[in-house]
Design goal:
The protein is an alpha+beta fold and about 375 residues long. The chain folds into three domains: about 80 residues, no CATH class; about 150 residues, no CATH class; about 80 residues, no CATH class. It contains ten helices and 20 strands. Strands 1, 2, 3, 4, 5, 6, 7, 8 and 9 form a nine-stranded mixed sheet that branches. The chain has a three-stranded antiparallel sheet with strand order 11-10-20. Helix 4 crosses helix 10. The chain is globular, with a radius of gyration of 24 Å. The N terminus is likely disordered. Bound molecules: zinc ion (ZN). The site of zinc ion has 7 residues, from helix 9.
Length: about 375
């Protein structure tokens, strides 16, 4: 059932007569509660769990409320399309402990709004610690060593709060995908991952008193990357360190093949004027060995493409890292590589390797983010 946007969305409560004092006291009380909750580490986080939908279905057996005050409506199911949305967002709360959005259960509340291209953006607003319970086991296997899970929890908490600080006036802090960090709501919660979040509650990484950019990735291939080399980010705790992840990682040496028409088609869709490929080779390489640019020789001359852009163009799921050697073999471009992910910051497989050797999560984090401190917020 489609529900029209409630007129109450974004309109403040009407205040009349004696109720005014009551509302004022309640408002001050709510503000003090929010401030004290924030001081106690109960930070909120806003995650865009859908960003380009044409329809969203919200459900709760306990009932959903939309709007507020006397205009609040209660439904078990709310179906929204872009036509139902005005300029103000629609706030949806559950009378139970969760809201199902397009079949997936989440904690917290939902804000449904139009995005910049007239589609639906759904923002899940929830407690940071609850959010992390849906992140850790979505990022790494919950069967892994507890100290690796705890290292992931602290890195993810730090990353999330840093993104919140950097979000400026944006309506959300994070995406729910690998573009930020994976978050699948309550479906991702597993007892061991929840324990790792609880055991490190409020702990974040700081460098010289400030939250760090706690980047992390799947598997570095033997040495993590200097963020200055790859992204121009000058941070002494992101310089790159040795790592033994290759001993256990499933992303050891790998090889992927791309047909020349496939590569030409993908590059042309991105605006590169290329009609043929006669050769392919690496351009600049970082001291650690990652490729900064890939060069294609063609009738149009030498075309230089940032390696990370090429990864994005050809697909992260096949083009696993930029720790690579490209080659033209029998009308195919063969990419031989190591590791998975950008290689900056904590290496997840390396963290698991260190945990298997008996290292505690604090030592794991110190290894990948040297010079940082763990503090409790
Ligand atoms: Zn590694």
């Amino acid at each position: 059932m489609a529900v029209m946007a409630p007129r109450s969305a974004g309109i403040p409560f009407s205040i009349r007569g004696p109720v005014r004092h009551c509302s004022f006291i309640l408002a001050v009380g709510a503000l003090l509660f929010a401030l004290s909750a924030e001081c106690l580490g109960a930070a909120r986080i806003r995650v865009a769990i859908a960003d380009s939908s044409t329809q969203v279905v919200l459900q709760s057996p306990a009932g959903l409320t939309i709007g507020r005050g006397r205009t609040a409506k209660v439904r078990r199911t709310i179906t929204l399309t872009p036509a139902d949305l005005g300029t103000d967002p629609i706030l949806v709360r559950s009378r139970g402990s969760s809201i199902s959005v397009n079949g997936k259960k989440y904690r917290g509340t939902m804000e449904v709004r139009r995005n910049g291209i007239g589609r639906i953006r759904v923002i899940n607003d929830l407690d940071l610690e609850d959010y992390l319970k849906g992140v850790v086991a979505a990022e790494i296997p919950h069967e892994w060593e507890m100290e690796a899970l705890k290292a992931q929890a602290v890195a993810s908490r730090t990353y999330a709060l840093h993104q919140k600080e950097a979000s400026g006036g944006r309506s959300y802090h994070l995406l729910a995908t690998v573009d930020s960090q994976m978050y699948v709501g309550m479906e991702g919660e597993r007892p061991r991952a929840v324990r790792a979040v609880d055991d490190t509650r409020g702990e974040v990484l700081q460098y010289e008193g400030r939250l760090i950019s706690a980047y992390y990735h799947s598997s570095c291939g033997g040495h993590t990357e200097d963020a200055l080399e790859l992204w121009g980010i000058d941070a002494s705790y992101l310089r790159g360190v040795d790592c033994d992840c290759q001993r256990i990682s499933t992303y050891g040496p790998w090889e992927r093949k791309f047909s020349i028409p496939e590569v030409i088609g993908a590059l042309r869709r991105e605006g590169y004027p290329i009609t043929d490929i006669a050769a392919v080779e690496n351009g600049d390489i970082t001291p650690a060995g990652r490729v900064k640019r890939v060069l294609f020789r063609s009738s149009q001359g030498m075309i230089s493409i940032p390696a990370e852009s090429l990864r994005s163009i050809l697909g992260y799921s096949r083009f696993l890292s930029v720790f690579i050697e490209p080659e033209l073999v029998d009308r195919e471009i063969v990419i031989s590589g190591r590791g998975r992910g950008h290689g900056v910051g904590l290496c997840q497989w390396g963290a698991q390797d260190l945990a298997l050797q008996g290292k505690e999560y604090r030592a794991i984090l110190e290894h990948y983010y040297p010079g940082t401190k763990i503090v409790r917020r």
